[in-house]
Amino acid sequence: MCSFTEESKKGTAPFDVESIRADFPILSATVNGRPLAYLDNGATAQKPLPVIEATDRIYREHNSNIHRGAHHLSNVVTTLYEEARERVRSYIGAADTAEIIFTSGATASINLVAATYGDMTVKKGDEVIITYMEHHADIVPWQMLCARKGARLRAVPLTPDGRLDMEAYEAMLSDRTRIVAVTQASNVLGTLPDLPRIIEAAHKAGARVSVDGCQGIVHGGVDVRALDCDFYAFSGHKLYGPTGIGVLYGKRELLEAMPPYMGGGDMVDKVTIEKTTYAQLPLKFEAGTTNYIGAIGLGEAIHYLRGIDMTAAWEHERALTRHAVESLSQVEGLTIYGPEERCSIVSFNVEGIHHMDMGMILDKMGVAVRTGTHCAQPLMAHYGVTGMVRASMAFYNTRNEIDRLREAVDRAVTMLR
Length: 417
Ligand code: PLP
Hints:
CATH superfamily of the largest domain: Type I PLP-dependent aspartate aminotransferase-like (Major domain)
CATH architecture of the largest domain: 3-Layer(aba) Sandwich
Bound molecules: pyridoxal-5'-phosphate
Helix content: 40-55%
Strand content: 15-25%
Shape: globular
Number of helices: 15
CATH class of the largest domain: Alpha Beta
Structural class: alpha/beta
Low-confidence stretches: 5-9
């Protein structure tokens, strides 16, 4: 047995934010002479010790390329890699590890679907539906597909309070719709689209649904079978795992029917100069040396999360979010974008203050937030702004850090007005 940690670990320990913070070394850093308040988790989450240590240990003790070697080290790492795949499978509720493809991230996963399933099914005159709140990673690959095929890309508009206009969506669906691509949670507004309704309506129209789970998996998890989505993509680095690793889930019958994405080593069965036959799932989509250490690190991150009472952790995030919204709303001239019901992402602007200036002053006070368009330029255009300030919380954040965000915003307002 090569597991780094015991599989018997259960998420029953009471949720205690201080003991959780002790697992994340970077959270005790100081920035500009102040304790770091890391509120940029939507961009990437910090890593707990088991992830850092597992990665370090493989390089020190086990490193060897997977799937190819007859020797001990290669077998150890291959076993760990396949165990990580099983951890992902069970975490997202997929039926079979054949449905779990390791990629370099959500962007790669979505591009894979657009270039293979998309190319296979979308024809001239067909339609692909996305939404105005998608990240560029869930816009551009579909745009490229539609341009290649002479198909039409349509985007679901938003309601005034930043939800999807479901009536408009349902009216868009037709027998020309091939694919609906939608986020589980907006990385800017925190909006949580009604995925069961979206998926059911798409399926009734004969379309397939690709869900961008980047933010959703972090703040509420997923059960891909209960959801009945056809594809589901996420990135490891936002789920407390390493960078450069991501996952594509796809229903087995779809993955089986799809052509490979990239050609190369490990994705083949037999190669002659004339012809190649491909490996079985999931390796058919894992050409070349994958980020196997990243995958094992992601498996460790998932194992770590399983040791936490995630219901309590997500409730803690929701309480922080309510506190942030209440506190920031009191600042004169401050607009918070998005609906009341949201995941732990709060984007805002203060009248007369550029988002970048706000971000710089917050940084001087040790508060890390993200500023800019958040890879969602159509959404910025919808709101008529050049950017926003985004605070995004994880379960290791504290009420005190939200109070420091508010203090820093007050300070910025005093200085910049
Ligand atoms: N989709 C959403 C909703 C995101 O928030 C992000 C990253 O910010 C992505 C896709 C792209 O993720 P990655 O850059 O890890 O591929």
